[in-house]
Every structure is written in C-alpha cells, then in structure tokens.
Amino acid sequence: MAAGCMSFCEVILAILLPPLGVCLRYGCCTAEFFICLLLTILGYIPGIIYALYAILFRDPVKSHGDEYRPLA
Asked: Distance between CA 10 and CA 7 in Å, rounded?
C-alpha cells in the first residue's frame, strides 16, 4: 500500500513539477534527472512526458545495474 501511495505522489509531482518527481525516484545527480530538467526547460510538456515515462515504465534498480562496470 505504501508503494502505491509513493508512486501516486511521484506521478502528481511529475505532472506539477517534472524534475522533482524524477528526483524522488532516481536522485538529484543522475542522468534521468538532468534529462528531465533539460526537457522541462526546453518545453514543459516534453518534461512531463519524460518524467511519467521514467517514473512509471523504468526500473531504477535495473537501469543502474550495468553502468559502473570496469572497462578492463
């Protein structure tokens, strides 16, 4: 029940202020946050669309699992 309430709050924040909803899900210094911030600055509607996509359809655990593997 708490996870559903948190998702609902993130969606409402993503509609009102898109970078804030993404920040709650992924953190403030992530690529998702900066993409959402840039899209919101360029146009409010693209920021909302990306924020909803990032919150509802992307898994934060799965998306950050492979990024920090060593190259060698």
From this structure: 5
Query: 48: how many CB neighbours lie within 10 A of its CB?
Result: 19
21: amino acid identity, one letter = G
Cα–Cα distances (Å) from 18 to 13, 33, 65, in that order, read: 6, 9, 24
Instruction: State the average pLDDT over residues 27-34.
Output: 88
CA torsion sign, 63 to 28 to 4 to 8? negative
How confident is the model at residue 65, as a pLDDT?
A: 54
The one-letter code for the residue type at 19 is P
CA angle 38, 44, 49 (to 5 degrees): 85
pLDDT tens digits, residue range 7-19? 888 889 889 999 9
User: What tokens appear for 28 in the block?
Assistant: 């403030």
